[in-house]
Automatic annotation (TrEMBL):
Keyword Signal in record: yes
GO molecular function terms listed in the Swiss-Prot or TrEMBL record: hydrolase activity, acting on carbon-nitrogen (but not peptide) bonds
Protein name (record): Polysaccharide deacetylase
GO terms of biological process kind: carbohydrate metabolic process
NodB homology domain ranges (all copies): 98-331
Taxonomy, superkingdom: Bacteria
InterPro entries: Glyco_hydro/deAcase_b/a-brl, NODB_dom, Polysacch_Deacetylase
Entry-linked PROSITE patterns: NODB
Pfam family, one: Polysacc_deac_1
Presence of the UniProt keyword Signal in the record: yes
Naturally occurring in which organism (per UniProt): Prosthecobacter fusiformis
Keywords assigned: Signal
Amino acid sequence: MSFLHSSLSRAGQAAKSAALVFCGVAGLARCQLAGEGAVLAFHGLRADGVATGVSDEGLHLRLSTFRAVCERLAKGYEVMRLAEMAEILERGERLPERAVALTFDDGYASNYELGYPVLRDLGLPTTIFLATGFLDGDAPLWFQQVDVAMRQGGRVGNTRTLGEALAHLKRLPDEVMREEVRRLVESVTMPLDEPEVMRPMTWAQAREMQEGGLVDFGGHTHTHPILSRCGVEKQRWEIRMCADRIRAELGAEPSAFAFPNGGVDDYTPETLGVLKEVGYQSAWTTVCGRVNTARNRMMMPRYGAPESVWEAEATVSGAFDLVRRWKGGVA
């Protein structure tokens, strides 16, 4: 039933997006919102027709969809580096027409194996936000552990679905959440091999992409906690350790940071202070919205990964936002 509902929701979103494009709303939005930009947030990618072995398939976009979206953006938009976008806005200047930036969170191997060839073929720059402990191999992503354990029959409290379990865990203080995840993992027989889509990229792969000139790397903490669920010293350690590991492995100073989970309640004023202390020049949420000069550079918005070319067009053009403004801010 949940899969059917999800499929219907995706189909409905695609139809709504196509209607906004064909009715001219996307074109109108590009005119009315000129000088603003859009940033897309991807995570992992997956090959078409291959079972993922995870419940949260939405975290890993189909390769065919990713390629189609990138081809559309390459033809119709100004795909620019995230750092360049932030610098233009910092100067108080309007962005180029049709400005878009691409980002990935976490640091999955699929970013290199599936995504990078597409980006390289089309000449599209991107920024990958790294959870450095994931790449180091000493801090598996906790939400992936929950996904796999629940597929093996494990349960988190009275929750019945992965969505309910993650929502419960995300509300807890970080150390309490980690203990619950540890008990969950110990309660089941975990598979010896993690699903392919869950593998991290290697530092060697990151260096290869960096040397290719199209990919920049930003911070995403070391162990992927929700920062507002951590004390200030833990936040400082996570943010600084992440930056230190990127410097050590890539020889570059990370200028952009993406908040794990990325909602409005997932960081604090203290978080922003630590980011500035460590040297970050911009920080990015998962709150949807247009990028413009009115935004706080340490709380910048991003849109989720579009699941069709039509959704991509309606999103980056600003059509959804224009309709929302017509409705007085109601989605």
